[in-house]
Amino acid sequence: MSTEIIRPFHPADAPHLLDICLKTGDNGKDGTRLYSDPWFIGQLYVMPYITYDPDLCLVIVDQEVPKGYVLGASHTGNFYRWMEDFYLPPLRMHYPQTMRCSSDTEQFFLARLHSDKSAVPVTREHPAHLHINLLPEIQGRGYGSELINQFIKQLRHMDVPGVYLHTGTNNSAAVRFYRKQGFSILEENRSSVKMGKRLDS
């Protein structure tokens, strides 16, 4: 019998979410070997969200152990301004541009850390964005779809007109999955695909 449930984020979940972010940090595969600091990637893609708006984080747990999550921001522009003003300055001091990286991937995200988030363009059609990660053991069982559906339901209650996400250009399985959830490609380059979904139609 299945013992997994989806519930709101609890503060005690944070270390587990950081670990999930790392274990899925190589286009959905274990990214441990890519990072000199195992918490680095989660400091970029987990901690700011559960700090800024923990109510927009949903977690799938098996006997209270997190196995996956979805999180995001209802207004990307406001979120990135908060990051620039409050969250990123101490993080940039902790991870300086001179940091020795273990891989090109870590170097890429270090450059992202030191880029100006307030300059990220935000469209009126898709002001929200999300990140979702599930450990391999619970993938392919419908939980990803349910996490996205519940997240989108929250956004609709907030009258958010649209949401977007990014995935790797080489992650064709993720692109197929998001298409099934009603997302379409908005932009594409050599490294990433931006996909969006309107919520007001």
TrEMBL record:
Pfam families the UniProt entry points to: Acetyltransf_1 (PF00583)
One MF annotation (Gene Ontology) recorded for this entry: acyltransferase activity, transferring groups other than amino-acyl groups
One biological process term in Gene Ontology: glycoprotein metabolic process
Gene3D superfamilies listed in its UniProt record: 3.40.630.30
Keyword rRNA-binding in record: no
Annotated InterPro entries: Acyl_CoA_acyltransferase (IPR016181), Glycosyl_Hydrolase_84 (IPR051822), GNAT_dom (IPR000182)
PANTHER family: O-GLCNACASE (PTHR13170), PROTEIN O-GLCNACASE (PTHR13170:SF16)
Protein name (database record): Acetyltransferase
Species annotation: Salinispira pacifica
Organism ancestry: Bacteria, Pseudomonadati, Spirochaetota, Spirochaetia, Spirochaetales
